[in-house]
Amino acid sequence: MSATGTAASPAPEVTARRLARAEQKVALLEAMIEDRTRSLFLAQEELRRSNDFLRKVLRTMESALFVTDAECRIIVVGGSASRLLGRDDTDLLDTPLYELVAGLDTCPVFDQTAESEREVVFERPDGTTVPALVTTSPMLDEDGQLVAMVNVATDLTERQRLEHERRHAQKLESIGQLAAGVAHEINTPVQFIGDSTRFLGDVLEDLLALIDAQRRLCELARRGDPVDAALAEVAELEEVADLEFVRDEAPRAVERTVHGVRRVSEIVAALKQFAHPGTGAAAACQLDEIARTTLVVASNEYRYVADVVTDLQAVPAVLADAGDLSQAVLNLVVNAAHAIADRGDDQRGRIDVRTRVEGHDVVLEVADTGTGIPAEILERIFDPFFTTKEVGRGTGQGLAIVRSLVDRHRGTVEVDTEPGVGTTFRIRLPREAA
Fold it and tell me: What is the end-to-end Cα distance of the chain in Å, rounded?
């Protein structure tokens, strides 16, 4: 071949081999594409099925689901959100979650970097409200920055209704246990009223007879007839009536009757207030007045074992259910009376009931001179059904109920005790304006 000639063409067999390899590569590429396409299709189908399953799960959830971004705006809605809030799911999207909660106008209550839960009250467009327990779980990125929050809200309406009924049942049980004492409290002033009324009735009968005799005497004197017999009758009836005694005792009998009626009215009013089921809603109430009322109802529990000394200062109102607080105070007073009785001696004990203000708190104390609480059981006294009393005298519910009711009102219960000396229980509740 000359220097200027063209290169020789590949042999036909070489070209055939190259073409065969190219065809193999194309076939392999097609197989890979088909495999990838199939895998992608299967993955999409799995994702669709997963999404469908997730949507079905969310639709059947009893709780409401709100996924919010870092700004607390709702980006995903599920579960019973529409039933809970009375709004369509689409209307809830892009709405700040805190705008749906009564009393909130900022985000921080939900802006947590750790899982938390709290009770809130949601507001519906029609003006009604729904209590709910919201559990918030944060979603963080690789750098620990907050990306979103998963909020699960559970409607507490039914639970609160059942709890309210349970508390009322416990209150009625307490009234049943105190019925004998209440009957005795009423019976004593009723006896005063009965004795005084009978005395006044007898006096009135004698006075009416004397008045009739005096009228007859006046009539005889007016006609000019002899009056000696009439004068003797009047004198005799005056002696029977014992006017000097009546003048001294009748006002006292009236006073005893009025006092007895007032006492019965106080007892009935206290019992009515204590037994009232209430609304279950918090309202402004006076802790000192609640203590006074409860002491009237519980008097038979302590009157034979202890003297009650009160220092019930007029304190600011607290936002609470008055029935709940009455039950808590009753349990503490009864517990104090039992602690004194458990000393087993003949000495009367003392129960001090005090109210005062400390900072932003209203404080109620019930102190007794009872047996005190041994150190080994001190941590268990608020446990449900824990009791050291004999069967039939205590169920272990009293202090557990106190803790539950006070916790419900954002308060605390403190205890100071010394075995053989006595115990002081202290309830702290935030003032209404706090």
Answer: 109
Separation between Cα atoms, residue 47 and residue 320, nearest integer Å: 51
Q: Which amino acid is at 199?
A: F
DSSP code per residue over 163-226 = HHHHHHHHHHHHHHHHHHHHHHHHHHHHHHHHHHHHHHHHHHHHHHHHHHHHHHHHHHHHHT--
Helices 398-408 and 157-223, packing angle to 10 deg: 100
Q: Confidence class of residue 8 from pLDDT cuts 50, 70 and 90? A: low
Is residue 282 within a helix (H) or strand (E), and if so which, with residue range? none
pLDDT in tens, 339-378: 898 888 888 999 999 999 988 889 999 999 998 888 887 7
Sheet of 412-418: strands edge to edge?
306-312, 349-358, 361-368, 422-430, 412-418
Contact 422, 366 (CB under 8 A): no
Buried/exposed code over 303-319 (b: 16+ C-beta within 10 A; e: otherwise): eebbebeeebeebeebb
Instruction: Give the tens place of pLDDT for each residue, 145-201.
Output: 787 888 888 888 777 777 777 666 666 666 666 666 677 677 778 887 888 888 889
